[in-house]
Request: fold
Amino acid sequence: MKVRPLEHAFYLGEDVVLLARRLLGRMIVSDIGGHRTAGIITETEAYAGITDRASHAYGGRRTRRTEPMYAQGGTAYVYLCYGMHHLFNVVTGPPGIPHAILVRAMVPVAGLDTMARRRGREHFTTRGPGTLAQALGITTAYSGADLITGPIVIMDTGEEVPARSITSGPRIGVEYAGSDALLPYRFRIPPSRAIPIPPAP
DNA sequence: CGAATGATATACT
DNA sequence: GTATATCATTCGA
Reply:
């Protein structure tokens, strides 16, 4: 299989937890500020619709901030957390159903110099949702952006991620969510499984 | 371990 | 409209 952008058919799937697993090993690419940066996704978290107390859309809450969550699958949802971190999410599912996947970590594969400059340090990490978005140049300005047409897209690399290599556990920073905080909606693959593949020009 | 830092949601007047 | 608590985090001590 060639390296090509994921299409709507991928994002429109009904099962956001399954899709969170399937994003692992795929490549996120951004063309922002005249620079291409990319990384292999190694950690995700699913936020499952209006019944998930950890989700911003819990109970059907619908505000200007969360509006993109109600768009069709394949839309970006970006919001500011703790006043300084832009967190990038992938909206999935049919329109009106606010499923989202937080992309928490990646292994950089392209535009390392640009990432270093954006991160403000020569040696940097992209493990953690805030630093990942910063390295990719993603801000809340891109909330609601379409992930098929860009400038942020997710590529199918053709690399199969063995189900066995995926570990799961409770999500981070959602202690307020009661019993939903215990759901095993966080998924990771070992960084060694993230095989760097250069993005197409 | 704790400060940083500001948009947002919610509860008021 | 104004007030205030909260936050899907990160970095440095």
Observations:
- Residues 61, 63-65, 79-84, 140 of chain A lie near DNA strand B (CB under 10 Å from a C1').
- The beta strands of chain A are 4-5, 27-32, 35-48, 75-81, 85-92, 99-110, 152-156, 167-169, 186-188.
